[in-house]
Each structure stands twice: as C-alpha cells, then as structure tokens.
Design brief:
The complex is a heterodimer of chains A (115) and B (113). Chain A is mostly beta strands and 115 residues long. In chain A, 0% of the residues lie in helices and 52% in strands. The termini of chain A are far apart. The mean pLDDT of chain B is 93. Classes of the chains: A mainly beta (115), B mainly beta (113). At the A-B interface, strand 5, strand 9 and strand 10 of A face strand 5, strand 6 and strand 11 of B.
Chain lengths: 115, 113
C-alpha cells in the first residue's frame, strides 16, 4: 500500500518554542492531507485539512494561529505548533489521500512533549 | 453531519474463536467506510474499505466486514482470532460530500491464548 512518512517520531521542546512536524507521501501525490491529534486511550480528533497550494481548513475549536499548516507541494505538508505549552503535548498523526484513490493512509505519528 | 459509533470499548475473545467488532454510522448520501488498526505508539494501518459493490469486503490479515445499509452498520469480523490481533480498532466514515474522515471512539480487542 501507499506509504506516508512522518518526522520526527518523537520530539521534546521547551515551553514557548515552536516545533515543526513533517508529513510526506512517499509514493503518491496528495492534494489533500489531514492532521489529527490523539490523546491517550482516545480516538483521533481531526484538527485540519491541508490543501496543496491553498489555506488549510481548520475544524471548529482548533486555533489556526497556533497550529500552522503548510502544504507546499503535492507530497509534503507540515504542522508547526507555535509557542508550545505543556497542554499541547500529544500524539499527532497525519494522513494523506492519493489523488487517484479513496483510501486514506496514515503516518506513524509524532509524539510531542512540551516541557 | 457524519458520525461513527463503536459501542464497545473493549472486546475480549479467546484465540481461535471468531471475533466481531461493531460499528454503526450516520452520514447523508452514500458512505465510504473504513477500518483501521492501531498498535501501541504507532500510526494507523488500513485494513479494509467499502465504497460500492459487494456488501462483504475482505481485507488484510484475514479480516472482513459486512456493509448493511438498512442497519447502517459495518461490523468487522474474523473467523479465527490470533493473539497478535490484539490492538485498537477504529471504524471511520467519509461521505455526504465531505472529504474528511471521521473516526469512531475505537474498540480495544484483546485476544487471550
């Protein structure tokens, strides 16, 4: 199946700093990618839909100025958590849908710990 | 609005026995339905999907699911469970003209030797 790579898998940052997470579709083009957040033992919460070449669409309650999304190419979307706080610590997962298909494939996730 | 319900937080089954993980959905129009599995500290792995056609779909690792339009269900099944099937299973739906995938709460499957 299609492969989605997410990097870094784990990152620790200090409060007040920013951290960037990358999501790449390795063997397909994806006009649309998605960013999810998952709390321990909970389901995935959709944060935003990332659209190549245009602004991301954020879900209600997600601060777009805090969670910056850039989808600069058909194979790369980035999520930047700005001015991170400990409550931003979570498991962030990206996903991508091939332009030619219906299945959405997921990355391995990124653990963010803000200290 | 789209929604997915997984009524069981956990399903326990003995190795070798059949397993069922339940899922019901709500969406306007024709649904696209998916099952994913998540192992600890990992991303989600795609198992199977229903888009159109035969109501019984077969997927990875011997799993299958049956689409039932009248009951708005898409239960995941496997004839003979393995201990290695123990994981968190998510049902998801896309439809109603929306591009995004909405997930159920997840069901933890525990297969005992």
């Amino acid at each position: 199946g299609a492969v989605v790579s997410q990097h870094p898998s784990r990152v620790i940052c200090k409060s007040g700093t920013s951290v960037k997470i990358e999501c790449r579709s390795l063997d397909f083009q994806a006009t649309t990618m998605f960013w999810y957040r998952q709390f321990p033992k909970q389901s995935l919460m959709l944060m935003a839909t990332s659209n190549e070449g245009s602004k991301a669409t954020y879900e209600q309650g997600v601060e777009k100025d805090k969670f910056l999304i850039n989808h600069a190419s058909l194979t790369l979307s980035t999520l930047t958590v700005t001015s991170a706080h400990p409550e931003d610590s979570s498991f962030y997962i990206c996903s991508a849908r091939p332009d030619s298909g219906n299945t959405i494939y997921f990355g391995e996730g990124s653990w963010l710990t803000v200290v | 609005a789209q929604s997915v319900a997984q009524p069981e937080d956990q399903v326990n089954v003995a190795e070798g026995n059949p397993l069922t993980v339940k899922c019901t959905y709500s969406v306007s129009g024709n649904p696209y339905l998916f099952w994913y599995v998540q192992y600890p500290n990992r991303g989600l792995q795609f198992l199977l999907k229903y888009i159109t056609g035969d109501n019984l779909v077969k997927g990875s690792y011997g799993f299958e699911a049956e689409f039932n339009k009248s009951q708005t269900s898409f239960h995941l099944k496997k004839p003979s469970a393995l201990v290695s099937d123990s994981a968190l299973y998510f049902c998801a739906v896309r439809g109603g003209g929306y591009n995004k995938l909405i997930f159920g709460a997840g069901t933890r499957l525990a297969v005992h030797p």
